[in-house]
Amino acid sequence: MLRYLNGGESHGKYLLAVLEGVPAGLPLTAEDVNRDLARRQKGYGRGGRMRVEQDRVEFACGVRKGATLGNPIGLLIANKDWENWKDVMAAEPGPTSTEKVVTRPRPGHADLVGAIKYGHRDIRNVLEKASARETAIRVAIGGVAKALLAQFGMQVLSYTVQIGDIVAKRSDDSLEAYRQAETSDVRSPDPEAGAQMVERIRTAKHKGDTLGGVFEVVVTNAPIGLGSYTQWDRRLSARLAMAAMSIQAMKGVEIGMGFEAARRFGSEVHDDIYYDKPGQQFVRHTNNAGGLEGGITNGLPIVLRVAMKPISTLYSPKKSVDIETKEPFDATVERSDICTVPAAGVVGEAVVAFEMANALVDKFGGDSLEEMKRNFDAYQAYVKNF
Questions:
Q1: So what's the pLDDT on residue 248?
Q2: Helix axes 369-384, 341-364, angle to 10 degrees
Q3: In angstroms, what CA-CA distances link 141 with 62, 125, 233, 348?
Q4: Which long-range contacts (CB under 8 A, 24 or more apart) does 286-290 make?
Q5: Beta carbons of 102 and 124 less than 8 angstroms apart
Q6: What is the pLDDT of residues 291-302, one digit of tens each?
Q7: What 8-state DSSP symbol labels residue 20?
Q8: How far is C-alpha 156 from the chain's CA centre?
Q9: What is the dihedral sign for C-alpha 238, 239, 240, 241?
Q10: Percent of the chain scoring above 70 in pLDDT
Q11: How far apart are CA 26 and CA 371, in angstroms?
Q12: 293 and 224 in contact (C-beta within 8 Å)?
């Protein structure tokens, strides 16, 4: 199986991760990862931090001459803003500058509950790790996962379907929707809705407010049989939902028809099964299940929609209480964004790609890419003749 641990603070020297379980012989370069790191930093509504950082990954170990070794892969992303914070965030013992101490928790953040849980009197110790800056290293991990999935003909795509109350027109062609979205400042596949989304974000900025929304993630060409119904934690639907909800500020996830299925009759929800004799395969003409049945992939595109709340840091701050004086104050304002739904979609791709790659490794095993491909090809032949 694949697994990783990640670390690093928002204004620390590095973000880092160790990724284990990637088979040997996978072609991999830093540019494979850097493309998505650049996409994560784009989007109308981003804040000043994106002008400071220019994220690039460094493979510290596990990759040699453009291919994985089968060893754990070490990934590093340097924080350029570290130069402005190295005294405040230094690992060595010493006094802390009082001007950077945070005692006023922001509503909606992990600030207060994190300080209580870990006994911190300086909330900066919480916000530095709880920050969405952490998603950069997860996008890097997702980039490695995407490189593995691509070897088996799979892609992971995303686009914005809603910001605030502006909803994009639905498209039946996810690849075309993705291509359209990549030309949009808000990653919307609907140009008209995209223009309205930009205007909504501009209005929120003038008010000192923030906006959330919904993005859709689609996995193409997933084979039948990834995941399992035999244990609750092996259901791929559950793992994907957990991955989506692990992203900062996410509040809801649905697969396929999702919550709409609860409002319909079963006859309007379940996807009929047919057999295509010329093609020698089972087929469906609808995908209300979103590519997953019983926690197992059914060969259709996997479709998830994820709801993101408005960012908690407002330039017109919410009310809060100082943890030291217990006096009411306006909450602390950290440098922040107005809307990050377009970037969140890229992060969504990454966490979904990791879970899909994990399921692929679990199903087809192999210490090398060559061995995995042999197992995959034999299984595909079996499915065709079922």
A1: 96
A2: 80
A3: 13, 24, 22, 12
A4: 287/256, 288/256, 288/257, 288/261, 289/255, 289/256, 289/257, 290/255, 290/256, 290/257, 290/258
A5: yes
A6: 999 999 999 999
A7: E
A8: 11
A9: positive
A10: 97
A11: 11
A12: no
On the question of pLDDT at 137 being above 70, the answer is: yes
User: Quick one: pLDDT at residue 48?
Assistant: 55
Q: Please report, rounded to a whole number, the percentage of residues in the chain having pLDDT higher than 90.
A: 86
Query: At residue 76, what is the residue type?
Result: L
Instruction: Answer whether 106's CB lies under 8 Å from 313's CB.
Output: yes
Q: Which helix (H) or strand (E) holds 297?
A: strand 296-297
Backbone angles phi, psi at 269, to 5 degrees: -110, -50
Dihedral class, residue 311 (left if φ above 0, else alpha if ψ from -120 to 50, else beta): beta
Question: In the prediction, which pLDDT does 330 show?
Answer: 81
Closest to 304 (Cα-Cα) out of 262, 257, 358: 257
* Sign of the alpha-carbon dihedral angle for 283, 225, 263, 167: negative
| Strand bridging mode 155-163 / 213-220 | antiparallel
Name the average pLDDT for the chain. 94
pLDDT at 45: 74
Quote the CA–CA distance of 45 and 142 in Å, as a whole number: 24
Could you state, in order of their start, the residue ranges of all structural domains in the chain?
Answer: 3-256+291-384
Assign 3-state DSSP to the chain and report helix, strand, coil percentages, each to 5. Answer: 35, 20, 40
Instruction: Tell me the torsion sign for CA atoms 144, 149, 152, 154.
Output: negative
State the pLDDT at residue 232: 96
This prediction's pTM: 0.95
Residue 184 CA, distance from chain mean position? 19
In angstroms, the CA 303 to CA 292 distance is 9
Laid out side by side, the sheet with 250-255 consists of 166-167, 155-163, 213-220, 302-308, 250-255
Report the candidate in 116, 126, 138 with the shortest Cα–Cα distance to residue 346.
138
What's the rounded Cα separation, in Å, for the pair 315 and 204? Answer: 10
CB of 12 closer than 8 Å to CB of 82: yes
All residues at 6 or more sequence positions from 173 whose CB lies less than 8 Å from its CB, including other chains: none
Token pair of 383 as six digits: 């499915």
d(CA 7, CA 23): 23
Using the predicted structure, report yes or no on whether residue 49 has a pLDDT greater than 70: no
Q: What's the CA gap between 29 and 127, in Å, rounded?
A: 32
Tell me which of 3.60.150.10, 3.30.930.10, 3.40.50.620, 3.90.1150.10 is the CATH number of domain 3-256+291-384.
Answer: 3.60.150.10
